């Protein structure tokens, strides 16, 4: 259950709220007893992509770089 604070408390104790959020808590900010905002931790970013991580896992047909057949080229050039 997230902690609920009114706007005045949130302004007064903002750095404490941020510390709680950094520890993984959710904090709800209320105005006149009605929730209006929620402060939540930002999820961890995904691990950065590592170039070359698929090396050896991808293969190409022997004729991959061969010219396309005329019938295929004609299909692209048709209007």
Describe this structure in words.
- The structure is a single chain.
- The protein has 3 helices and 3 strands, in the order βααββα.
- The chain has 79 residues and is of the alpha+beta class.
- A 3-stranded mixed sheet has the order 1-2-3.
- 1% of the residues are buried.
Given as residue ranges, the uncertain stretches (5+ residues, pLDDT < 50) are none
- CATH topology-level name of the domain at 3-39: YefM-like fold
Spell the H/E element sequence.
EHHEEH
Strand order of the largest sheet: 1-2-3
* CATH superfamily membership of the domain at 3-39: YefM-like domain
Secondary-structure blueprint of this entry?
Layout: E1 3-6, H1 7-12, H2 14-22, E2 27-31, E3 34-39, H3 70-77
Parallel strand pairs: 1-2
Antiparallel strand pairs: 2-3
Quickly list its features.
elongated, three-stranded mixed sheet, 3 helices, alpha+beta, single chain, 29% helix, 79 residues, YefM-like fold
Quick gist of this model?
The chain has 79 residues and is an alpha+beta fold.
């Amino acid at each position: 259950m997230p902690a609920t604070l009114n706007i005045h408390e949130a302004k007064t104790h903002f750095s404490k709220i941020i510390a709680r959020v950094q520890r993984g808590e959710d904090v709800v900010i209320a105005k006149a007893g009605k929730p209006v905002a929620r402060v939540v931790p930002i999820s961890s970013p995904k691990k950065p992509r590592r170039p070359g991580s698929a090396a050896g896992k991808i293969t190409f047909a022997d004729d991959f770089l061969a010219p396309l057949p005329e019938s295929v080229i004609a299909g692209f050039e048709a209007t």
